[in-house]
Amino acid sequence: MTLQEIDQYLENKLKNNENIIEFTFYELRLKLNLSTEETYNFLHLVSTKLENNNYKIYRTGQEYYCRGTKKVEDNQLMVAIKK
Asked: What dihedral do alpha carbons 11, 48, 61, 26 form, nearest 10°?
C-alpha cells in the first residue's frame, strides 16, 4: 500500500466514526491482503498519524476506558480513541 492509499483508508475510517477507530486482523490481512510486514508498517504509520492528531492508541490485549472499561480483543490489532 502506498502512503496515499493509507491516508485515504484512514480518512474513510474517520468519516465513519472519528471518536473510535478500530483496525481488525480480518480487514488488514484478509480484506486488504497485507502481509505481516505490510500490516506492521500500516499500523505504525497510522498510529503515528493518529497520535499526532490527539488520539490514544491501544493494541491487542490492552485495556481502555470508553463508556466502561474494555479490552482490545484478539481479533483487533489496534483501537484509537479521540482524547
From this structure: 40
